[in-house]
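tool=predict chain=A
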Amino acid sequence: MDSFTFLFKNPFLSPSLMVKFLFMKKSIIRNYDAAYKHLFDYPGMVRQLLENFIAMDWVKWVDYEKLEKINASFIRKNYKKKESDVIYKLNFQDQTAYLYLLLEFQSTVDPNMPFRIQSYVNDFYESIIKKEKKDRYPIIFPVVIYNGDKPWNVPDNIKDKIEVPKDPKLLPYIPSLKYFKVIINEFKKESLLKIRSILSSIFLIEQLDIKDFNTQLGQLAKIIKEELDPDIIEAFQNWFQRFIESEEIPDIQTLIHANEKEVNTMFAMTVEKWKKQLEKKGEKRGEKKGEKRGKIEGKIETAKNMLQKKYAIQTIAELTGLPLNEIKKLISKV
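tool=predict ok
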């Protein structure tokens, strides 16, 4: 659940405030995507993702002291800033692998995800081949993290998007590439709490409305205080700051040295300030919307007066800026 949905599940918001928050949706979503991308700038968060959510033996063998972040813009042929992908080079048992994280936060589920993954992986291998010639190349492990509200109903292997040929001899020619799914809305709140990591807490916050969030502050405060890595705490602080679009977040040193009760109180106060801040923004945007509506209504009145004085429709359109079809609708009202 994104921060926009998080707001609308609040039972204490009035309908008028909900309407005002509509005008804030785009900026919230932009900040939200950035929040997640920056979250995985921290190798410790990548480690929590692997250890807590990917149940495979090789995860235990990774040398987490040597995680190396790769610049995706140098790899993708048609790299766009809107794409949210994060790449890490991993080392384990004298082998190299690459972790390819695709952060998927669109409002709709992309049915072509298997083809996108295939394209990204191909681009990646091309970039590796340009640097060195080998008989065999490292494995690329693609992971899709999705936090939308809609169910993820897309196959996790490209072969399942291709028709099965009638001639079985063609089967070996069907490409096969599987990606690992981390679908946040499929996790139960209780299981996320049991994991007791900062990343699982972030996934939990995704699923809470404001009323539930307030009741979980104590548990979240405990998890923050149990975390010993200051980089992980900083990652959470930066994510939460972007998540609620506010700079009034306890700084990293305050979080590290505060006790559990103080952390609880600080975040409770932050959430209250956040709600008030959004309310003020909503009021300002509502005022601008009202001004725009007033201007349109003024143009409509002008057009009606001109119609009564038998002005040509084309002339009215040029002078008022109203569409011709809107002016034609007014004819029956004068």
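The first strand starts at residue 68 and ends at 70. Residues 291-333 form one domain.
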